[in-house]
Amino acid sequence: MTPNLLPGATAAPLDRGSLLACLGGFPNDARTLPAQAYTSEAVFAWETTHFFEGSWMCVGRASMVAKPGDQVALRIGREGVLLTRDRDGRLHALSNVCRHRGHELVTCPGTAHGKVIRCPYHRWTYDLDGTFKGGPGLASQAGFDKRDPEHSLVALRIEQWGGFVFVNVSGDAPPLRDYLGTLPALMQPYEPERLFVGASHSYDIAANWKVVVENYHECYHCSEIHPELCRVSAPGSGLDYEPSGLVIGGSMELLPGAETMSLDGTSLGVPFRNLTGSALREVYYLQVFPNLLVSIHPDYVMTHMIEPLAPDRSRIECSWLFPPEARLREGFDPSYAARFWDITNREDWAACESVQRGVAGRGYRQAPFSHSELVVHQEMALVARGYLQGRVPDPVPVPEDRRAPSWHPHVAAGG
Ligand code: FES
Ligand SMILES: [Fe+2]
What we know:
By secondary structure, the chain is of the alpha+beta class.
């Protein structure tokens, strides 16, 4: 079905014909995205409003605001966001903008800790849930009503799943549950809410966020650029994930003899305690549109959280999460996972930056796909549909029985 512009929406500033070409039959008739999707400031500004501010963006783990009084300032698109943990342990996402004259409450990016949120400009203060408390001289100021909710910080939508925190700046995205599709059921045996961050790396790369995502969704390039990966997992193995919610991706199998993805295939952690059978041999690579990549291994979960900075610049926070039992293992050292993926990440970033230089040149054309790039096509079609409709496409609904913990992911042959 041809996606039409939704009432009141604004389509992305791209040629309609070139976007419709992305929706052709896979693999030969469909085409990759046009160059401007990766290079245009106007497209990036449109994406900022409609994809990043208009959807559920993952901002990290709840453990980064672990204790009451913890405050973390971060950015989603143009929006300053302040995460706080209040005295009752509740998490809040507030606009990081003082209700007095607009100073940032906590320098972004940055952290603070205190019983209140205090603006560094004229010292207006707020409770950790954003309620206005007072400011110098205001208590005695005739006619100033400190209980007026007008003075309180603007609250943003926040939801959590599995220890991950998501914020929807625009306030009108469908519930997070709809975005996640069958992912919570798939991850249920991994108990994602229990995991701790064993290692993390931040990368600044000179490539569009979609180049990073598209590269993640195929292993067609693996035998060319990932010698380490090919020693522990076969590029052609695995299955594609049946898209649900706004989650797409696929799986790959470990080679015989490899316990996990590491340089020598051995694990210095412990397998997730509920895993049995084939789940111990499988690695899932899944994206929650737009900015969270979740790579699920038998003994750790790796996440890439992408912060799009400009058409040709992205910051990527890569974290390695482990079950608490891993800490009890003698010799546990998260670097067996982090080192392997740091090497592989850098191989990927070099390829992504090369693609970015390529799409910025005159020689780039929209091209057909290889049959092993189905998920890349799914990603581009999702993006193209969003561009044409004027907002993030509706999540693929999940039948109730597939939300049950007993449900096993449906995968289709391919990959
Ligand atoms: S801008 Fe915050 S107290 Fe004045
Ligand atoms: Fe790769």
